[in-house]
Amino acid sequence: MKAVSPYLVSMMAGLWALGLSDAGLLAAETASKSGEGVVARIGDTEVGEQDIRAALDGLDERERATVAKDPALLNQVVRSMLIQRLVLKQAANEKWEQKPEIAAQLERSRRSTITESYLKSQAEKSGAVPSETELRQAYDGAKDSLFVPKQFQLAQIFIAIPQEGGEDAEAKAKAKLDSVIKSLSHAGSDFSSIARLNSDESNSASKGGEIGWLLEKQIQPEIRAKVATLKKGATTAPLRLLDGWHIVKVMEVKEGYTPPFEEVRAALAEKVRTERVKAATQAYLSQLIQENPVVINEIALSKLAADSKP
Prior knowledge:
Elements: H1 9-20, H2 22-34, E1 38-42, E2 45-48, H3 49-57, H4 61-69, H5 71-93, H6 100-124, H7 132-141, H8 143-146, E3 151-160, H9 166-185, H10 191-198, H11 202-205, E4 210-215, H12 221-227, E5 239-241, E6 244-254, H13 261-291, H14 298-307
Antiparallel strand pairs: 1-2, 3-4, 3-6, 5-6
């Protein structure tokens, strides 16, 4: 599955959890019997429209928009759900969940889920969702940290000089450099084609010399000093560094900027909400412990710890 942005991890986890749920399995069995609304199938295991709709209904607005733009993402998750259900059926046939160690894990998971969801509900009672005014205030206070520095989209032709090659290696590299410079000087010369044929850095050479987008601070100081003065489409003179010769082309430039409020609103709301839920949870637990003091028999505990030694 292709990489996804961090905020989609929770979405995919939710879809995966649907495959684990008894409700999800029951819906699939119903769809199978009726023959209607089946979206995907593996063997006699199916995922129905009801399953997918339930999963999508659990997403927030931004996540639904992402799925709408990239249906392949949902396709991959549905595939995972099918495979998971197939494995679940095999496990059920062997009564796997009845094994003592598995039953113990399930009980721990049940307790953890109940505890976490209950604490979340208590925290959210305190008004964890920020208002529009609060979000605006958070945005104004975070502008410095939100600033995106100047960026350059670069391409290069790199001619390596082995450190232990001596004068002979230097001469061969210089001859190759002269040939590249001559090719670039021709009217209508194509930097990309010349990079593919001559650059000694295979990864960028396969892309016509393209390195990609780099923040200004990510560029080597010697190269940064040169490209910072160039406009889009310009190329540096050959630069001799420790590893060899570099000819760098500026393909595009993005000036530093602060993203507008609407661009970061959703991420900012999630950040503020997470911080508030965390603070409210800690306050709730502190109050709960204050009302119900913890008492531990340290002697008995030490004995148990000693007995657990291998």
